Amino acid sequence: MIIYLIREIRMIKGIKLKELSDITGLSISYLSEIENNKAGSPSLLTVVKIATALNEKLDDIYFVDDELNSLKNALNIYIEVYGIQDSKTLELSNKINGLINKYNNY
Description:
Layout: E1 2-4, H1 6-12, H2 17-24, H3 28-35, H4 44-53, E2 62-64, H5 68-82, H6 87-104
Antiparallel strand pairs: 1-2
């Protein structure tokens, strides 16, 4: 299963759903379906449009559920290398926690 982080990234950046719709040319209802993982499988072009509009790399706006363990391992490495208070470590930790919470809701 693919879990999209579009809503979380959009909200962090202070972008309204209508703004994202205007930028991407995608309807608000379709964007909402994607954000809630109810859109099935949006095309790669659609996902690229959204990533571009959010000024994010493509692989930062979604993850595949089996990647969760890899992310946890990456966090452990960051902690070992940079320490728990490093901004990169905290950012990665927040992303992983968000993914875990989102994944557990499906």
